[in-house]
Amino acid sequence: MAVNGAERLRVVLVSPRNPLNIGAAARAMSNFGFASLRLVNPYDVAFREARSAVKSRYILEHAEVYSSLAPAIADCSLVVGTTAGDKRDLHTPLQRLEAGASQIRQHLSSSGVALLFGSEKFGLSTEDMSHCHWLTRIPTRAAHGSMNLGQAVAICLYELSRSEAAVTERFEAAPPASAEENERFTSLLLELLNRSGYVHDRTSASTELKIRRLVRRLGLRAADSESWFGILRQILWRVKRAPDAILIPDDESRRQL
Amino acid sequence: MAVNGAERLRVVLVSPRNPLNIGAAARAMSNFGFASLRLVNPYDVAFREARSAVKSRYILEHAEVYSSLAPAIADCSLVVGTTAGDKRDLHTPLQRLEAGASQIRQHLSSSGVALLFGSEKFGLSTEDMSHCHWLTRIPTRAAHGSMNLGQAVAICLYELSRSEAAVTERFEAAPPASAEENERFTSLLLELLNRSGYVHDRTSASTELKIRRLVRRLGLRAADSESWFGILRQILWRVKRAPDAILIPDDESRRQL
């Protein structure tokens, strides 16, 4: 699950204002197996007391604090800034997170990467961005591009941890019932419908075909078929014990088959 | 950017406790272009006052409140629950978000999908899960699987909005400098090194080759080459004006070439 070289990623929050967001960033880091958090000029120096999940407390405790950006990224050979902007005329190359993350992952396998997040209110400054090799952008819609800081961190780390292979990894399809099981279901249901007066003698042949098709479309699963047989047998047993009554077939529902 | 059928997705928060998380969910929905939020038994009925970005306020204002799950998902033909659990013995099929999202996207193109998130503390109950066709799991690490609610919503909606095509969509590689530009850079640098006493007469031939290779490895970009020529010419101009001095070549740095 863990990203190869996860220990080489530095999550760098530049001038974060709200300790809750620092706590949220730490929690997401713990969720995805990243541990190195660096803070540049946090507004609230008491951030270590920020509410965060118990399991991510160690990340806050070991967070490193810097008074400027350069030393916070000094040991990284790739520096990537995040931005909500969609302007192509920025001085630094910009790419969507999907492409950016794949490059970061590649880089992490051998050397350090700093992933920068700006303050809640202003994002990264132009000066912060001048330290970046390139910028990346979460593909939010243009009309509301700016994300909550904790959510932005979570999405970036998720994208780094995401597995391309998993996309096509369907859960094992449950084996469908066999023709014999489907037919047994059909027979039980037909007997029940007969006993219930749903099936007329004059229409029984065509109704049988309709019921058979209806059952096949259910997509009965092999593992469930015994349960269904039990259910139908139980109802049948009850119907057989019921005193005879004048049964009024419901033509409407039969036509809809 | 918007997901095809985004208006058919219902984000359903079951028994959410913290209005801040409801606000965060709404913000992420706005970021990714989803609008239909449903709340089942929210703990705090004043959730509409929750702090959220101004741009996502309309989502909170239109959120629908239900007292039980069934009516909140009645109009959906696919119901998917989210879980932090990794247990394969659940009664409901479970798959990773990457695979799940691709199925949800497919379904959304024609019909309604409910995406369920449980309470912050307990997640979805077994009863809630019995309403689900299947469950999906964000690939967090086993040791700390449980995510913050607002972050989990953000990641799920991001995965739905994510573009497979974008993964390989590199930003247009900046055109590299031509051989002529690289050679002009080399000549200017060599002249500068000569004037600075860095190049000895007796080593100048081999040094020239080293410098040429060094420049090629820089990966000079075509768009930047004029700036570099200007920089080198300016330094050269300054060096030419400098009074002759006894220059001590730095053998160490030359050897490292």
Give the biggest beta sheet of chain A: 7 strands, parallel
How many beta-strand elements of chain A? 7
Helical residue percent band of chain A: 40-55%
Looking at the structure, what is the overall shape of chain A? elongated
Q: Please give the count of helices of chain A.
A: 10
Uncertain regions of chain A: pLDDT < 50 for 5+ in a row?
A: none
- Report the CATH architecture of the largest domain in chain A: 3-Layer(aba) Sandwich
Q: First CA to last CA of chain A: what distance?
A: 49 Å
For the record, the CATH class of the largest domain in chain A is Alpha Beta
Structural write-up:
The structure is a homodimer of 257-residue chains. The first copy, chain A, folds into two domains: 6-168, SPOUT methyltransferase, trefoil knot domain (Alpha/beta knot), CATH 3.40.1280.10; 179-255, no CATH class. Chain A contains ten helices and seven strands. Chain A has helices spanning 19-32, 57-61, 69-73, 97-108, 126-130, 149-161, 179-195, 204-218, 222-241, 251-255; strands spanning 9-14, 36-40, 64-66, 78-82, 94-96, 113-117, 134-137. In chain A, helix 2 links the parallel strand 2 (36-40) and strand 3. Chain A starts with 8 loop residues before the first strand and ends with a helix. The model of chain A has no long low-confidence stretch (mean pLDDT 87). At the A-B interface, helix 1, strand 5, helix 4 and helix 6 of A face helix 1, strand 5, helix 4 and helix 6 of B.
